[in-house]
Amino acid sequence: MAGSRLPFTCEKRPASGALGVVVTNAPLGSAAGAEMLAAGGNAIDAAVAALLTLTVVEPMMVGIAGGGLSHVRLADGRHVVIDALSTAGAAMTADMYEPVSDLPPDYMETRERRNRVGPSAVAVPGNLRGWCLMHERFGKLPFADVAEPAARTAARGFTVSHYLHGAIREHEADLAADPETARLFLPGGAPARPGERMVMGDYAQSLRLVQAHGAAALHGGALGAALVERLATGGPDAGRLTMDDLVGYRAMEREAIFGTYRGHEVAGPPPPASSGVHVTQMLNMLETCDMRALGFGSAESLRLLAEVIRIAFEDRRAASGDPDFVDVPVERYTSKDYARACLARMAQPARSLGPALHESADTTHITVADRDGNIVCATHTINGLFGARIMVPGTGIIPNNYMLNYDPHPGRAMSIAPGKRVPTSMAPMIVLKDGRPRFALGLPGAVRIFPSAMQAIVNLIDHGMDLQSAVEAPRLWTDGQHVELEPAYAAMEGALAAAGHEVRLVKTIGGGMNAIEFTPDGMMTGAACWRADGVAMAQGGGLARPGVRFQI
Questions:
Q1: Model-wide pTM > 0.90
Q2: Its Enzyme Commission number (predicted)?
Q3: 363 is catalytic
Q4: Percent of the chain residues past pLDDT 70, beyond the cut
């Protein structure tokens, strides 16, 4: 689709190469992954190096004491989803918080923000376990090499971005209340400014422990002991995370969910993630319509997208969650017959959704591929911006606030229970054609993630956009209560309002998408969008022809 025909202009440029591509939401994250490829590593090595480095340069978004999902497509064609989502610990109970309301908008809030800020908000972390499992199973380089870029970056320091500065300002009061976070992020009592150097000496030492001991450094070792000690305040804000929880945590290998769309296969993660189920459901509904003929950004296509997304959210609210605790009808929701039945609901009023659960909008995503056919598409977080907004003294570790995502009311489907994982909208998606990868993509953004991923897939397959345009294109979102439009769709506000929608114009829907496109000639193109500090790095060229050397 020609750029001149689109109602927006791309702000970034893609990068292409045949030897590998790394796309992350921070330049040094991409550089760390590219370094691993240059050292002879594979996409798994590059992904883990990038994620560890993002815990340094995107400390507000992701950390070793967080959770997330990695979708791995191996060179032999297997798909493996590494579920490293946080869980509730053994001593965490359905009645551990005091809810402030049984009604929206404060349904999920608790007295003194105990599930949001401080030690009592911390769930059992999974990120480091998941990354180490992924590397152990599928990596190529020594783990010490993979962890080196992150430790080096923390020790030497990096330049504070406008993105990080804005995040600090947003939660300045909470960060100032914790001496450790204040010391790093509020030097001299003011937020670290863009362009300043930030050195994380304590965290560098923690990463050296991780480098030497892997996940055991946190899940049973010195870092875990420091974390548990920090949370055990002895007061009403005390956390319930124990060393036994850390030692007992296991990342899980799950099977991807596959759907089809106009001759393509679309693979995504299964529950507790919503994306594999509901991206498939939405695409099944759209497959009955000629999206290309409707045209990108037309009033008709936006109305259709809004209805399809609304229906997916109605079903998500009806049945989603940890499959060990909640019965999610995966086969029903992903069937073509069910999608056709859903079309009749477009003419019906929106169903009552009940109170909306929390989910992190502050996340990071990476997309990585190597020359051999390995792909990693991964989304990870510490849940809220700066997680629990505390730091473990002497370690530089910012723990998650994943307890915020559980229903604080007892007796509900998403109430707290030991070992329970909460639902997630994370959507590390891989699209295939004739059994070969065509696209891999994902993004941050809480409940706006999987509808945004779906729209990018439609942009690529139906509207024939190039990859850069597909990830930068404006987005629409709704859960049935109102419709959000990004600025480039502002002209459509009247048309949607006339169709009966309450329309809100917002700056962004979801976060920084990044993606890789694969072509039959072996070339790969990476792209990142304007919504984050995303950078694509590609490797071309290669080693000298065998037997050739320089000779005078």
A1: yes
A2: 2.3.2.2, 3.4.19.13
A3: yes
A4: 97
